[in-house]
C-alpha cells in the first residue's frame, strides 16, 4: 500500500523570548492510503502541533515530513497553501463555515482558489454533499440556519471537494452532543469504508478514538503507543432527526 | 481565483452588513459629491464672470485719461479726471493697424426729467460706433447715427432702467413705445427719445442699463460746456491675439502725441479687457481650488472611515481569514479580497457621490444665476480619486489580513 503520511523524527520547538519549549520530541510514524487513524492525547500533549504540521499549516523545526512522497518540511507559506489546497481536507471542531453563505457555496469555497468555473464547482460540491450524506433539501440553506451536526457535515463535504489525500479532523465532535457526534463519526466511517478515504482524527476522547482502525497515543510530545484498534466501535447508522 | 469570483465574494461580503457599509460609503459619497458640486459651481461662476466681462464688448481696450495733477503738485484728483484725451487722439488711434472699431465718448451724471418723474443717471455722448464696440443692442427705435452727430441733433437713446425710472410707475412697467417720441429734459435741455436699448444686466463696473446716449457733439456742447476733451475712448481690436500689440501701439502713439518721453509719466491709462478676464479668472480659479481643497479634506476623512471599517472587518473576520488560508488561499488571494472590498466601497460611494454632486450642481444652477458646469474631467478625476482612496486606505488592512497566521487566526475567539 502507498504511504500517504510519512513523519520522521519530527521535532517542534517554540521560542518564547529565549525560553525554548520543545513541544514535539521526535515523532515518527506513517499512514498508508485508506487508513482511519486516531491521534489521541490529553491537552498539552502536542497533538494540535502535530496536526498543524501534518495539515501543512506549520513546518517542523527538524525532521522530515513527506505527504504523498513530497517533503513539506522546508516549504514557504504560499507553497504550503498550495499543498493544503490540493492535498488536505480540514474538518474543525468549530466547523468554521461562512455564516451568511449557502451550504452549496460553503462546500464549493476551496474550489474558488483553484480557479474552477462556477458550474463545475457546484457540480463537485453537490457530489461531495451526497458523499457525506447531507440531505438535499438543505443545500440552499444558509449555514447558520443549520444544527451543529448538519454544520459539521457541511464542513466534511467541504473537506472532500478537492479530492484530498487525507481528511484531517481536529476534534470534530467536540462541539456536538453525543447523538450528533455519533452521526458525524458514522459519516467518517462510511467515507473510509465505502469511499476509501484516508482519515486522520485528532481527539482527546477515547470513545471517539475507538471508532478508528488504529490509535496513536501521544503524551508530552512523544508517541507512547501506536497499535491497531481491536475493539473498533461502529457508529450507529444515520439518526433520522437532524 | 478568477476576477468574477473575486467580484462575487466581494459583493457578498459588503452586502452582509448593509447599514455599516452604507455609513462607511457615506463619507466617500459626501466627499465626492462636494468635490463635484463645488468645482462645478466654481467653474460656473468663472464662466458667468467671464461672459459678463465679454458682454462689455469683445476684444475691448479702454483708453481713459490719467489723473489730473496741478503743476508741481503730487495731489492726485483720481484716475480719469484729467483732460488729456482729444477727438484727434481718437482719430489717430483709429488709423492704427489692428483696430477694428473705435468709439470716442464723453460722459457725465445729470438730473433727467420727464414730466413729473426724474432720475439721476449717466449721460454718454457717443457716435454710431458705440453699439458695435460695447455690445449694445437697440430694443426699439434706433441708436445715435453719424448724421445725428454731424447735425448735433437733440436726440437721446435711453437704457431700460432709465425707461422704467422716467416712464414707469409703481403700477405698470413702461414699454419702449411709451418713451419713443417723448421729450425728456437733461440739464435743462430738451431731447427727443428715439430709441431704447436692450437690457444687458449689471456688471462689475457699471450698470449699462442705467444710461442715456446722446450724440457726441451734443454732449460736448450742451452738457460739458463746449469742452472738446473725451472722457473715454473704447477700442475694439481685430482679434484677441492682437490686443496686446494694439495696446502697445496706442501707448506709443499717445505718448508721442502728448510729448511724453517717460512712460511712467503717461497722462492716460489703457485697460485691457483680456487682463480683466485673466484677473477675474485667476480669482475664481483660486476660489475653485479652495473649494475643491475643502471638499478634498472631507474625501480624506471618508477614506480614513473606509480604513477604520476595513480594520474592524479584518478583526471580525479573523477566523474566516484563517479558514480561507487553511483551505488553500494564498497571501495574494486574501490581499486581493480585502482590497477589492475597500475599492468596491469607495467606487460605489464615488458613483453615488457623482450623481448627488451633479444633482446639487443643477439645483444651484436653477436657483441662482450661476450656470454650473459639471465637467467630464471632474467626473473622471472623482472616479480615479475614489478608487485611489480605496487602494490606499484598503491596502494596510488587506496586508494585515493576509499576514495573519492561519493557526492563530483559526483559534481566534
In short:
The complex is a heterodimer of chains A (242) and B (413). Chain A is of the alpha/beta class and 242 residues long. In chain A, 32% of the residues lie in helices and 28% in strands.
What does this structure look like?
- The complex is a heterodimer of chains A (242) and B (413).
- In chain A, 32% of the residues lie in helices and 28% in strands.
- Chain A has 242 residues and is an alpha/beta fold.
- Chain A has a domain at 34-48 and 76-228: P-loop containing nucleotide triphosphate hydrolases (Rossmann fold, 3-Layer(aba) Sandwich).
- Chain A has a six-stranded mixed sheet.
- In chain A, a hairpin with a 2-residue loop joins strand 9 and strand 10 (222-228).
- Chain A is globular.
- The N and C termini of chain A lie far apart (37 Å).
- With 413 residues, chain B is an alpha+beta fold.
- Chain B folds into two domains: 3-52 and 279-411, no CATH class; 83-266, no CATH class.
- In chain B, helix 2 runs antiparallel to helix 10 (273-316) and helix 12 (331-367) runs antiparallel to helix 13.
- The mean pLDDT of chain B is 86.
- Chain A binds chain B through residues 52, 55, 57-58, 77-78, 81-82, 84-86, 90, 92, 94, 96, 98, 100-101, 109-110, 112-115, 117-118, 158, 162, and chain B through 1-2, 4-5, 9, 12, 16, 319-320, 322-333, 406-407, 410.
Amino acid at each position: 500500500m502507498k504511504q500517504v503520511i510519512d513523519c520522521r523524527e519530527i521535532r517542534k520547538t517554540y521560542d518564547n523570548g529565549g525560553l525554548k519549549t520543545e513541544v514535539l520530541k521526535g515523532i515518527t510514524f506513517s499512514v498508508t492510503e485508506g487508513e482511519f487513524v486516531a491521534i489521541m492525547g490529553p491537552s498539552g500533549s502536542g497533538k494540535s502541533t502535530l496536526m498543524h504540521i501534518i495539515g501543512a499549516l506549520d513546518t517542523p523545526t527538524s525532521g522530515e515530513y513527506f505527504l504523498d512522497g513530497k517533503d513539506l518540511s522546508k516549504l514557504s507559506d504560499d507553497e504550503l497553501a498550495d499543498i493544503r489546497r490540493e492535498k488536505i481536507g480540514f474538518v474543525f471542531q468549530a466547523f468554521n463555515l461562512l455564516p451568511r453563505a449557502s451550504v452549496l457555496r460553503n462546500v464549493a469555497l476551496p474550489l474558488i482558489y483553484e480557479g474552477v468555473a462556477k458550474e463545475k464547482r457546484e457540480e463537485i460540491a453537490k457530489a461531495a454533499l451526497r458523499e457525506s450524506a447531507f440531505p438535499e433539501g438543505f443545500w440552499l440553506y444558509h449555514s447558520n440556519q443549520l444544527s451543529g451536526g448538519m454544520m459539521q457535515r457541511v464542513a466534511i463535504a467541504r473537506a472532500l471537494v478537492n479530492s484530498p489525500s487525507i481528511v484531517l479532523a481536529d476534534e470534530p465532535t467536540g462541539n456536538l452532543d453525543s447523538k450528533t457526534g455519533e452521526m458525524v463519526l458514522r459519516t467518517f466511517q462510511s467515507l473510509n469504508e465505502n469511499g476509501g478515504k484516508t482519515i486522520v482524527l485528532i481527539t482527546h476522547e477515547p470513545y471517539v478514538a475507538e471508532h478508528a482502525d488504529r490509535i496513536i497515543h501521544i503524551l508530552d510530545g512523544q508517541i507512547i503507543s501506536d497499535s491497531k484498534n481491536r475493539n473498533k466501535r461502529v457508529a450507529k447508522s444515520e439518526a433520522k432527526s437532524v | 481565483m478568477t476576477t468574477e469570483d473575486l467580484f462575487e465574494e466581494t459583493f457578498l461580503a459588503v452586502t452582509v452588513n448593509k447599514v455599516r457599509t452604507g455609513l462607511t460609503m457615506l463619507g466617500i459619497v459626501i466627499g465626492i459629491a462636494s468635490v463635484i458640486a463645488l468645482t462645478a459651481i466654481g467653474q460656473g461662476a468663472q464662466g458667468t464672470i467671464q461672459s459678463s466681462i465679454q458682454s462689455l464688448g469683445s476684444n475691448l481696450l479702454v483708453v481713459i485719461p490719467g489723473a489730473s495733477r496741478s503743476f508741481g503738485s503730487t495731489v492726485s484728483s483720481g484716475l480719469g479726471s484729467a483732460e488729456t484725451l482729444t477727438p484727434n487722439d481718437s482719430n489717430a488711434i483709429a488709423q492704427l493697424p489692428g483696430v477694428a472699431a473705435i468709439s470716442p465718448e464723453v460722459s457725465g451724471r445729470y438730473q433727467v426729467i420727464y414730466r413729473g418723474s426724474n432720475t439721476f443717471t449717466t449721460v454718454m455722448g457717443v457716435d454710431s460706433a458705440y453699439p458695435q464696440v460695447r455690445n449694445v443692442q437697440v430694443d426699439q427705435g434706433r441708436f445715435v447715427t453719424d448724421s445725428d452727430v454731424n447735425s448735433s441733433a437733440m436726440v437721446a437713446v435711453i437704457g431700460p432702467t432709465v425707461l422704467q425710472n422716467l416712464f414707469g410707475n409703481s403700477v405698470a412697467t413702461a414699454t419702449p413705445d411709451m418713451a419713443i417720441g417723448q421729450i425728456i429734459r437733461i440739464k435743462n435741455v430738451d431731447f427727443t427719445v428715439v430709441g431704447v436699448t436692450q437690457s444687458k444686466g449689471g456688471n462689475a463696473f457699471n450698470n449699462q442699463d442705467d444710461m442715456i446716449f446722446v450724440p457726441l457733439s451734443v454732449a460736448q456742447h450742451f452738457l460739458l460746456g463746449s469742452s472738446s476733451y473725451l472722457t473715454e475712448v473704447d477700442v475694439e481690436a481685430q482679434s484677441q491675439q492682437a490686443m496686446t500689440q494694439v495696446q502697445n501701439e496706442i501707448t506709443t502713439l499717445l505718448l508721442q502725441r502728448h510729448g511724453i518721453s517717460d512712460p511712467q509719466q503717461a497722462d492716460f491709462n489703457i485697460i485691457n479687457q483680456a487682463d480683466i478676464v485673466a484677473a477675474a479668472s485667476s480669482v475664481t480659479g483660486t476660489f475653485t481650488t479652495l473649494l475643491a481643497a475643502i471638499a478634498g479634506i472631507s474625501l480624506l476623512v471618508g477614506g480614513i472611515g473606509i480604513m477604520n471599517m476595513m480594520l474592524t472587518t479584518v478583526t471580525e473576520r479573523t477566523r474566516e481569514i484563517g479558514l480561507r488560508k487553511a483551505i488553500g488561499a494564498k497571501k495574494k488571494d486574501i490581499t486581493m479580497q480585502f482590497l477589492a472590498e475597500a475599492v468596491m466601497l469607495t467606487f460605489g460611494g464615488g458613483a453615488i457621490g457623482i450623481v448627488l454632486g451633479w444633482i446639487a450642481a443643477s439645483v444651484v444652477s436653477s436657483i441662482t444665476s450661476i450656470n454650473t458646469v459639471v465637467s467630464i474631467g471632474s467626473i473622471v478625476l472623482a472616479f480615479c480619486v475614489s478608487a485611489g482612496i480605496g487602494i490606499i486606505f484598503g491596502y494596510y488592512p488587506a496586508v494585515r489580513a493576509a499576514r495573519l497566521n492561519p493557526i492563530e487566526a483559526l483559534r481566534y475567539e
